[in-house]
Amino acid sequence: MLKKLNTFNKCLSAIVVLMIIANIYYLFFYKSWDRYNFDSSVTVPPSYPMYIEEVSFNYPHDELGISFYKSQDEVNRFGNTWGQAYYFPEAREPMRLPIELVLSYFDYRANKFYKTKIQLPTKDMKQCFEEAQEQKRFTKLYNVHGDVHGLVFLLGVANNGNIMLWLKGDNYAKLLFKKHLEPVSISKSLNYDHFKTEEQYKAKFFEYLPDSTKQKINSGWEVKANYIDSTKQFIKSSL
After folding, report:
1. pLDDT tens-digit profile of 200-220?
2. Are residues 92 and 201 both part of a single domain?
3. I need a surface site. Which of 75, 105, 112, 150 has the fewest CB within 10 A?
4. Which DSSP state fits 106?
């Protein structure tokens, strides 16, 4: 009986130790106070169509986070509106803010590839979340366990290699940065896949472009536009 009691006490002690370790992990690694609800979206001008090969965030400690895939698919199907986020924002769970933006894309009109990794201004991002929360400017984000509130990262990929990143809420919009990218060769940007030459790769991209869009572009559709300075859509009250 005494031996069984000692075994029980040892098991109980082990459970207590594991619970303490779990609490320490939660407090010092998970850092619930440093996590936020947010979604992400990408947008391009209809008159300057792009093929987004990759767009993603990198997170601290290689954590998995949200992706741009819904709006990325919309852009690649030529169905997006400049300055507007994907119509159905959602958040799975509170996450740490991203630390890096990864982006590679093909500009149909310029016939150029772009690729970059950009360190994100995490301090400014935290200030935006604190400010929006204080001003009650968070927007509603769908969650399977019940709607939550937060902000949406909105990446604008403009013409001439220009990009900008915003944080948006309800009647809230803050520009995090504008960047100008230099084009890169396909050998340094995208994988050839099963194509043998750069020309074959580009030709495949152009197959996706609707004939109606090609005709508009050939007729000079917004040929002098500079969308990096066209931000009215980004600061509209609603997402």
Report:
1. 777 877 888 899 999 999 999
2. yes
3. 112
4. E
